[in-house]
Design goal:
By secondary structure, this protein is mainly α. It has 28 helices and no strands. The longest helix is centred in the last third of the chain and has 42 residues, at about 415-460.
Length: about 625
């Protein structure tokens, strides 16, 4: 029976390695959610097989070493900081945009345990690394097709691949390149692995993530330095390998002002090393926010996956003059762990990286040590995604394997057949429950949500059917419900006119009830902002001054709470301004807009709104001055 179970498990592992290529177009956040959803589903299935395997043959029980102990310590820290954080539910479940909750982490831990226990010979590992590399080659050609605008790809003209983000794509390519480099050192198929290595460098170039390129360069430099020391006969070749890209980059840098460089986005990004660049300034600004949040809760942090809370609490208004205003990560893995999990999380993450490097170095697995250096450096500029997490935990699994000495063990079955059957039945029932709660419900809710949005817009659903689908997405009370509630105001504004007059109030009231529930369970600034907007939206459709005033008061209370949570979030002031003008509370309108000019005096839109408020209040001179400042 062990052989059958092992084959089933290995099939599942092989399937997982293809997941980076999967884009679920029917899901909300199609590049992220479906990857983790299907990963978790496969893990839950093969974990059932693995449990039966371990109780029937103790050779495949988890192996304990320094890597597993460090991984266990970091897991305990994540659990503790979830309970001490600001939103336990969000910490455990995560959200559909990132899928990085503790529950997903448990699945990756299971992945590492299963891999390191079942794959017991380097030959087997090479087979699976070969699969991972083959998948990365397919990814390269997909990105290339995107670059040339192939209509059959997602987002033609971009270079995001099936990962959905150039930074995250580049992080995935780093791991894949080093996997290929490892296989290249085998006597078989060397030219294939060499080609795969350079194709992954091609992916890195197309993605043009400067942080990832810096990380890859650091890792490759470590690898070449090791080879330079260990193989004196190849030093001239290695020196040439280093010299060629250095000279090439120097040439491109000196040519950075030419049309050729300016018209090639990849070369423009690579040669633009100015600290004044918007992207660089955006990173520095976000790092400052994360650092301030860390200082506020230095021991346990704000809790895993609660970055939105701290980002808005310590928002730096400089973001309004940059590219983006809302981040759910610091774009620095170390600051992510520090701000969300405190000094404990930072120490656990840094220790894991150090232990991985030490384990590979001690076992004379220097290619892998170089990979860890590359990962450690690129983590200063980016965070992990489903695709990079799969490759990261594949690497961690290999480190666990490398840290063990596998002896020739004979099969030993400590349990009787009746006990094995009883445990198998129990775990089978538990697996069904797990699959329903963790995989089926979130996927069903997600599909219902996207159907409500896209179905009504395309005409595939009637308004009543779309509303029913939206209600269905929320009845599961599972992963994604928070995001679905916060999208309701937008859906309502786009859809309400399509409903019969007699049903409009019930459709609006459903959203009011859901958002009232949302702010109670997850008091994010945007939840209160959306609640304030839906109260205001409802007030526009009711008759009777007393009812309107009551709704305006509720809307104002929601906006006040949003400002309390994020005093520098300008979007709240703008929505509040609309309410104040409608209610003819012109003095309040002036107060609100004056506050925005104090928060971000260099942001022209604030002065424009300040001018409008003063015009409404009859302050003509102030209005003219504000409008001139805006222009």
């Amino acid at each position: 029976m062990s052989n059958i179970l092992i084959k089933l498990i290995k099939f599942g592992i092989g399937f997982i390695l293809f997941i980076p290529l999967y884009v679920g177009g029917s899901f909300y956040f199609p590049f992220i959610f479906p990857k983790i959803w299907i990963f978790q589903l496969v893990i839950e299935i093969i974990l059932f097989f693995y449990v039966i395997l371990t109780i029937s043959d103790n050779r495949y029980k988890p192996k304990l070493n320094l890597v597993t102990y460090t991984l266990a310590a970091l897991t305990i820290i994540l659990i503790i900081t979830s309970f001490t954080g600001v939103d336990l539910y969000r910490s455990f479940w995560g959200n559909t945009e990132r899928m990085s909750g503790v529950i997903a982490w448990f699945h990756f831990i299971a992945f590492a345990i299963i891999l390191s226990s079942v794959l017991r010979a380097e030959k087997e590992w090479k087979q699976f690394f070969g699969i991972a590399v083959a998948v990365s080659v397919l990814e390269f050609f997909y990105v290339l097709a995107q670059y040339f605008g192939a209509s059959w790809t997602w987002l033609p003209g971009s270079q995001m691949g099936t990962i959905g983000n150039t930074d995250l794509l580049a992080s995935y390519a780093i791991f894949s390149a080093f996997f290929a480099l490892y296989l290249w050192q085998s006597p078989k198929l060397q030219w294939i692995w060499a080609a795969a290595f350079f194709l992954n460098i091609g992916t890195l170039f197309l993605a043009s993530s400067r942080g990832a390129l810096l990380g890859f360069g650091a890792g490759l430099a470590i690898y070449l330095a090791i080879q330079f020391r260990r193989k004196p006969q190849t030093r001239k070749i290695l020196a040439l390998v280093v010299l060629i890209p250095v000279v090439l980059y120097g040439f491109l840098w000196f040519m950075r002002g030419t049309d050729f460089i300016k018209n090639t986005s990849q070369l423009t990004r690579i040669t633009n090393v100015s600290l004044k660049d918007d992207t660089v300034q955006q990173r520095f600004t976000e790092w400052g926010i994360a650092w301030n949040a860390f200082k506020a809760r230095p021991i346990f942090g704000w809790g895993p996956n609660n970055y939105l809370y701290l980002h808005n609490a310590y928002l730096d208004p400089r973001v309004y003059n940059l590219r983006e205003t809302n981040f759910d990560r610091a774009h620095n893995a170390y600051l992510d762990y520090a701000s969300m999990n405190g000094i404990l999380g930072f120490a656990g993450y840094a220790l894991l990286i150090g232990v991985l490097f030490f384990t590979f170095w001690k076992k004379n697995m220097r290619t892998w040590s170089a990979l860890i250096v590359a990962y450690a450096v690129q983590s200063f500029f980016v965070f992990d995604s489903p695709a990079s997490f799969i490759t990261l935990f594949l690497t961690i699994s290999f480190a666990i394997y490398g840290g063990n000495n596998y002896l020739r063990e004979s099969a030993n079955n400590p349990h009787k057949s009746a006990s094995i059957l009883a445990i198998s039945i129990f775990y089978f029932l538990f697996s069904i429950f797990l699959i329903w709660q963790v995989s089926v419900k979130p996927a069903s809710a997600n599909l219902a949500f996207t159907r409500a949005f896209s179905g009504l817009g395309s005409g595939a659903l009637t308004p009543a059917q779309a509303f029913e689908s939206y209600q269905k997405s929320l009845k599961y009370e599972t992963l994604g419900a928070s995001e679905f509630r916060n999208q309701y105001t937008q859906w309502l504004q786009n859809s309400l006119n399509k409903f019969p007059p007699e049903t409009k109030l019930s459709v609006v009231d459903f959203g009011v009830n859901e958002l009232e529930k949302e702010v109670k369970d997850h008091p994010l600034v945007f939840s209160y902002l959306n609640l304030g907007q839906i109260y205001y939206f409802k007030s526009m459709g009711v008759e009777g001054d007393s009812l309107k005033i009551s709704l305006w008061q509720k809307s104002a209370q929601a906006y006040e709470k949003a400002i309390e949570l994020s005093p520098k979030r300008l979007e709240v002031y703008y929505s509040y301004l609309q309410l104040a003008l409608t209610a003819k509370d012109y003095n309040r309108a002036v107060e609100l807009t004056k506050k925005t000019t104090e928060i971000a005096p260099d942001y022209g839109q604030n002065w424009w709104y300040f001018g409008i408020a003063n015009i409404s209040a009859g302050h003509d001179n102030e209005a003219i001055s504000a409008v001139n400042r805006a222009l």
